Amino acid sequence: MTKLTWTPEQKATLVSDRKTAVLAKSRDDAVLAGKFLLQYQSGYGQSDLTTLTEDIAADFVPAVAAGVYEYALAATNLEDTVTLTATLAGASIRYTYGATVNKVVASGVGEAVALVVGANVVTIKVLVSGYGPVIYTLTITRAAE
């Protein structure tokens, strides 16, 4: 098995049958044939938030912990906005909720999310250079009157 590596400055295209890599092309279109071992660095673990906080009366369920990426939060009817703060030094933090898609917010800076009655789903994508993204899913349920 051959290990195929390249730097970000290079470009390689890999063609695979999902079982075995069968062909790779370098930037100059030279064909590299054979079996290749691909290495992908998942962001999970490396890109976990150091803190995730909210500003309403309830707490996240389950409690925020490393390796947990889905949380629920209960808001009263009087709580029509929640401010979420995701922190990881050096990371790009992107929020998606309602009509807002991939809004970049600096690490450690709060994002105010308006809540409708019922379930409100917020995804937080954490991007760290050199790693795949980590996605947190928060379901915030605002109670009816």
From TrEMBL:
Pfam family, one: Cadherin-like
Record-annotated Cadherin-like beta-sandwich-like domain positions: 57-142
Matching InterPro entries: Cadherin-like_domain
Protein name from the UniProt record: Cadherin-like beta-sandwich-like domain-containing protein
Organism the protein comes from: marine sediment metagenome
